[in-house]
What does this fold into?
Amino acid sequence: MAQISPTKRKNRPLTLSSGDAFQPFRYSVGRFGSKFLVALRDEKKFLAVKCGECSRVYSPPHPLCGPCYKKMDQWLEVGPLGTLTTFTILRFQFIDPETGQKKPVPYGYGFIKLDGSDTNFQHFVSLESGEDLHIGMRVRPVFEETRTGDIRDIRHFEPVPGD
It folds into this structure.
């Protein structure tokens, strides 16, 4: 493989190739992801699966339990309220790869443990209430008016007032 001089390397854009595949990526979310996203879109509900072996509840759902390696097929509803388990506040702007638009700053991004779930759900957390985010804060989802079956059907999570 030919070496590129440091000067030329510095001026070249960093790219990753997928051969002749069209970009941006499109991929199937599978049976479990589809059922989860349809419930969000049509009913504003969070679905989860429960392991029959260890009783661990996963949301978003996936077909195998991590610790047990058992197939899961026991569906249940969790949330919609949850607890903020960790978060960050982003204060620099970048282009969101999903939308192609600059995300207004500052904004929060957090891990939310939905009520009834044993796993964390990652999503944006609103800073609009003026309330400082903190671990243990109760949050609720805010849904888009028009939903399309995409994780962005959840606009963000926001603090639960008075909690």
The two ends are 60 Å apart (CA to CA). The helical segments are 6-11, 30-43. The CA atoms of residues 9 and 93 lie 25 Å apart.
